[in-house]
Each structure stands twice: as structure tokens, then as C-alpha cells.
């Protein structure tokens, strides 16, 4: 009897410790402007392949935090976006990331877009945070959330397809470290291959 009670108390204590650990370790707020430093750099490799093995896209993408006239920005391709825009509180009811992130959280992600040729489109997916654990990519090992997105993409030209994605988001570096997308016979991957932070040698 006493042994059974000790076991129950032990199990209760373990479950409390686990729940406390999850509530602190598995909660991530949206990054703020003060979280970034000039010279912070992320580089991903990307590759898009059809089910027949044809490579449609392949290369590297680098983003860096820069300062222009005292204003912090992030390079995105040939453009530089103000970090104040990137870090402003999310007002959308259907965001890419619904802050704070925590395991088990669900939401709807929707995005409307217009391509250079004037084609309009909509992406609509159900999102869910599946886990928060160590994940290893070419750039190293990070604690990361695994977020699954399942839904559809369509455009004004009549295209409609199932699009499923898995994103690994690492709070430590304020960015995703890996993304896999499957869409209508096409597989696209991005993986972080290098991350540098001048304040962390």
C-alpha cells in the first residue's frame, strides 16, 4: 500500500516537472527589434524537384541585418526591409506564425498574393505546432518547433492544388532552419547551412 502511494506521488511529481518544463521551454514570443544585431546573417540552400526528378530550382539564399542611416533592416534578395516592419506585432487573424508558439497550438494560415504578371492567388492552410525539440541541420543543432501546414493553393488562372508544408522554427536564431513543401507533384526544400551572430563567437 505504502509502495503504491509512493509510486503515485512520484508520478505526480514527474508530471508536474514535465508540465512546468513544457510551459517555460515550449513557449516562444515574437522577436523584437532589440533581439537583432548588425551583421547577423542566415544562409539557406534550396532545391525544388518534380516527382520525375527534374530540378526546377536550386541555389542559396542569404539574409543579413544591416544598418542604414541608423535604421536596422534585413536584406531580402535585392531589397532591404526595415526590421521594424518585420518585428511589428502580427495583426492578421491568419498569420504564418501565431505568437506565442507552443506545442499543440492550432490556427488557420491564409495569404493572398499577386505575381509580377498580375496573376492573383490564395494559400489557405491549417497549422499546428507538433513538437519542440532539438533538430539538426547543416548549420548546427537548435531547439526548434515543428509546425505542420496542410491546405490548398489556388490562383486566378484556374490552378488549384493540395499544398502541405513542415517548418522548423528556432527561437534562438529568430528564423526557420528547415522547410519542406509538397505540392502537386513538386517537392521543395530549404535548409539553413550557415548562421552567424557577431555577439556570439
Strands, helices and their partners?
Blueprint: H1 2-25, E1 27-28, E2 41-50, E3 55-68, E4 71-76, E5 79-82, H2 83-86, E6 101-102, E7 106-114, E8 120-137, E9 140-155, E10 160-170, E11 175-183, E12 186-196
Antiparallel strand pairs: 1-6, 2-3, 2-12, 3-4, 4-5, 7-8, 8-9, 9-10, 10-11, 11-12
What features would you highlight for this structure?
201 residues; mainly beta; YmcC-like fold; ten-stranded antiparallel beta sheet; 2 helices; 14% helix; disordered N terminus
Shape: globular
Order of helices and strands: HEEEEEHEEEEEEE
| Secondary structure tally, helices | 2
Profile the largest sheet.
Answer: 10 strands, antiparallel
CATH class: Mainly Beta
Low-confidence stretches: 1-24
Overall structural domain count: 1
What is the terminal-to-terminal distance?
Answer: 56 Å
Radius of gyration: 20 Å
How would you explain this protein's 3D organization?
The chain is globular and about 45 Å long. The termini are far apart. Strand 3 and strand 4 (71-76) form a beta hairpin. The chain has a single domain (2-196), classed as YmcC-like fold (Beta Barrel), CATH 2.40.360. The strands form 2 sheets. A 10-stranded antiparallel sheet has the order 5-4-3-2-12-11-10-9-8-7. It has a two-stranded antiparallel sheet with strand order 1-6. Residues 1-24 have low confidence and may be disordered. The protein has 2 helices and 12 strands; from the N terminus they run H-E-E-E-E-E-H-E-E-E-E-E-E-E. The protein is mainly β and 201 residues long. It has helices spanning 2-25, 83-86, and strands spanning 27-28, 41-50, 55-68, 71-76, 79-82, 101-102, 106-114, 120-137, 140-155, 160-170, 175-183, 186-196.
Amino acid at each position: 500500500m505504502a509502495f503504491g502511494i509512493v509510486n503515485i506521488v512520484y508520478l505526480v511529481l514527474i508530471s508536474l516537472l514535465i508540465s512546468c518544463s513544457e510551459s517555460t521551454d515550449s513557449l516562444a514570443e515574437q522577436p523584437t527589434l532589440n533581439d537583432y544585431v548588425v551583421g547577423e546573417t542566415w544562409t539557406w540552400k534550396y532545391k525544388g524537384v518534380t516527382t520525375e526528378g527534374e530540378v526546377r530550382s536550386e541555389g542559396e539564399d542569404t539574409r543579413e541585418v544591416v544598418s542604414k542611416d541608423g535604421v536596422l533592416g534585413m536584406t531580402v534578395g535585392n531589397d532591404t526591409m526595415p526590421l521594424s516592419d518585420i518585428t511589428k506585432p502580427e495583426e492578421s487573424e491568419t498569420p504564418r506564425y501565431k505568437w506565442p508558439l507552443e506545442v499543440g497550438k492550432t490556427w488557420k494560415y491564409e495569404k493572398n498574393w499577386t505575381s509580377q504578371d498580375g496573376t492573383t492567388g490564395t494559400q489557405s492552410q491549417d497549422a499546428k505546432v507538433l513538437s519542440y525539440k532539438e533538430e539538426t541541420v547543416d548549420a548546427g543543432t537548435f531547439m526548434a518547433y515543428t509546425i505542420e501546414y496542410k491546405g490548398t493553393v489556388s490562383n486566378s488562372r484556374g490552378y488549384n492544388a493540395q499544398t502541405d508544408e513542415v517548418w522548423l522554427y528556432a527561437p534562438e536564431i529568430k528564423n526557420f532552419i528547415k522547410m519542406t513543401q509538397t505540392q502537386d507533384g513538386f517537392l521543395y526544400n530549404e535548409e539553413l547551412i550557415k548562421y552567424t551572430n557577431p555577439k556570439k563567437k
